[in-house]
Structure formats: C-alpha cells, structure tokens
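Self-study notes.
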Amino acid sequence: MDPDIALFVDVVREGSLAGAARLWRLSPAMVSKRIARLEGRLGIRLLHRTTRRLAPTAAGAAFHTDVAPLVAGLRAAEARVAQKGGGPAGPLRISAPTSFGRMWIAPYLTPFLDRYPAIRLRLDLTDDFVDMIDSGIDLAIRITATPPSGLEAHRLADNRRILCASPAYLARAGTPRSITDLADHARLAAQGQFPWRLTGAMVNGESRVETSSSEVVRELVLGGAGIALRSLWDVGDALADGRLVRVLPAYEGSAAVGIWALHAAAGVPVAVGALLDHLREVWRDAAWTT
C-alpha cells in the first residue's frame, strides 16, 4: 500500500490535516508535506486548503473515489494477516449514541485495547445517524427499529423502555393510574421523541422542558421534574436503588426497537469482529440485555 495515498484517504475522511495527523501520529506539517509530495508525483492538486477548511478538488474527489475502496481492502487484508500473526491491528473507528457510548462502551474498552494493543481506536459519540461509508466508520451502534439497508446488521439486544419518575415527583403530583392520566402530568422528552409509542397505546404531548439532549431528560426525571420514557440501560441503576420508580408498568416502549451493530457487507477490518465479540461478552450479564 502506498502510504501517501493511504494518508490522503484519511485526510479526506477526517476532513482536516490535524485529524489525519492524530490518526497517524504525525505532525500536521508532516502530513501537509506528504500530501504535497503525492500531488507532485501525480501532477495534480488534490486538496483545496484554506485557514478554515479543507476539501478535495474535483480531481482529488475523483481520485479519492477510485483509491478509497482499494485502501480499505488492503487494510482489511493486512488486518487478517495481522490476526494470524498476533491479533487485529490498524485503525478502528466506532460510532455510537452519546449516552449509550458513554455508559456502555467507553468503560469497557480498556481490556479490549490491552488485548489488542496494535489497534488504533477512535470512538465518535453522536445521536445523529451519520452516513457510515462517507464518514469512514467501521462499526456503528444504533438504537432503532429499522436498521438501514445495504449494511450487515446484528441485533445485540432489545431496547426495553419504561415509564418512570422520581418518588418525590409522584409524592407531589400523584401516581397515574391509567394511560389517560398522563395528560395531567409533566412529561419529559428530548426533541423528536414524541409521540411515545407504547404497547397498546400512543402518548402525544409536549415536554415540560424543551431540549435536544436525552441526557438532560435523564437528569430532569431524576431531579423530580416529571415522567419520562427511558431505556433500561439508561435508568436501570436508578430503578435498582430507588431514585426512580416505574409508572404504569403494564406499558413499555415498542419491542421492535433494538440495539444494533452495523458494518459494511465487505472489506470489514478483523478488529470489528473482535470488538463485537468483546462487547457481547461484557454485556452478557447486564440486566438490560435480559
């Protein structure tokens, strides 16, 4: 593999010289020098560079379209050989929802990295469904009822969601006895989370606090601001120690929603399978997976 071409692919993927420099453990100046060397060799300008942005030229975009799949394929082949010689190696980029990644991926990565020290891991946390291919993501964890087509999808666990509130809120506002009682209560949800699609019911409404952050909703319900529909992986600890209690336990979120692992159908780094095996193992006894 031509290292300058591989570096160019990573510069385009990262959207900056600095991002590629961190990945390659080089200085941005050295990355710039090597891209200039590649441009000189090819006799074309590959990148537009300004102080604020970096983007491929028309020729650079066409070159990237041609070489990016080749680089990915070579990296996958190198990773397979590396596995035979001592384990997965090379870059591995993961995307996951913000709260889930913070609570259920990041704390469990150290044993994986200790076992496979040659892996260069990047973890991106976002609640947006970014395009995996365009973003150069090797493995994405998504919470959805309908994983996108064109990718390999592995359902890792159900995503059970329950209605809950703090004892302080219920002592103040009363405990709802029927689904229609929710209309008289403060409801909490992030933007885009209404209506609540429950087993046998649908609840519309407006959140007492408008927010784009699901983590803010978690803190609000813990603080006694109202009733929320939350995933068990998110509030299981608070239910166990009594900071939250279930409301209307006959109702749960749709069982169609699951926690999925997504990756490309071909050219997948060996490290992806290794990480999936690791996550399945560390999550095996988690209460929210049963």
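Second protein, same conventions, sequence then structure:
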Amino acid sequence: MKNPNLKNGKAILFTCQNKKSLDELEREGRFTNKRRYINEHLEDVAPMILKVYDWFVDAASKRVKKPEDVEYQVWCAVSASACMKPEKNEVVYVLEVPDEEVIYFSSLKWDYILNYHYVPENEKDLERYTKEIEAKGFANTYEFLVGRYAGKYPTEEWEIRESWSRVFDIPKWNPLEVQANLWEIKKEWVKKILRPGEPMPDEYYER
C-alpha cells in the first residue's frame, strides 16, 4: 500500500537515534546503522534479535536496493505520535525522504517475526495454522527455529520463514501500525533535530 501522506513524492519520517549519530552525519554526510550499535544497544538479547534483523536485511534489500557498505536498516516511524521521545544522549530526526527510498512494513507482523512465529495472512489463516500445529502435537511454534525442535522439522521451519514476507503486506494504512525503514539517513533529508525536552512541532502531527 502506498503512503497516503506523501508530499511531492516524499515521505515525512521520524527516528530516534543516539546523539553520536550527529557526528557521523556531519562528518560523512550520512548516517548508517551498524552491527556494533545494535550489540551495544540490545546487549544480551542482541544475538537473537540480529538473526531476524539479518533476515530483514536480505528481504528488504530485494525491495529497495541496499548500498554495499550498509550493514543494517534505520528504524523510523511514519507518524510523530508513534515516534519515541528523545531521552538522555538521544535525538529525534524529522526526515523528508523520497518515497522510493523507504521500506514500509507492518509493526504487528514484525512482532511475530521477533518472536520467531508464523505470520498469518489473516485471522482465518491463523486459526487454520494453530489447529494444524496442535493436531501434530506441538506446544510451541517458537521452538521450531530456536528451541528444542530446531533443525528437526524442516517443513514447519520452511512454512514459518515463508510467512515472514507478509510483514511487507499492508492492507490498511494505520500510522500507529505501519513503520518504515531506510538504509541510510542523508544529511539533506534532515528537516529538524529534536533534543530531550524539545517538543515536536504541531505541524508534524496528523490532523
């Protein structure tokens, strides 16, 4: 689904980042996300999260070409209301980005992937899948990929991984459920930078 709020082919996006990103943006003219940033931020859970991040990088790069030197995506909100407020050592960027540079996805479906679950097409499909798994005697679908069942049931693993591509299917535009990713933040895309305690200008809130 296309972003209904485009202006002259550009999307307004919001992202909260460590303030160190300002130095890279000034020095390089761009900011990109790196594996070491994710490891520092997520600490103990980073190895588990990076496995699905790696899947996302591969899948998303087939939709919007990834620059060769980029390691990971930059997470963005499509709504000012959905953007995290900057805390100590953080800033929020308000970006104006050409729409062809943006990868849109469902945050609800992404939650399924983060937990290594099957992403259902709809409620009916979820009901079918749940009954099918229960009939086979399995208690937890999470364990097909990372638990006691890992590597033992290739058909079930394949079905789960195949379902993940549905994260890019957005049947209805809800700014609180749709998120966006970029491969980089270019300096010329930055319209405003907010520091802790600075309010988001009213003009960026949907009416």
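Instructor comment on the second fold: Residues 46-61 form the longest helix (16 residues).
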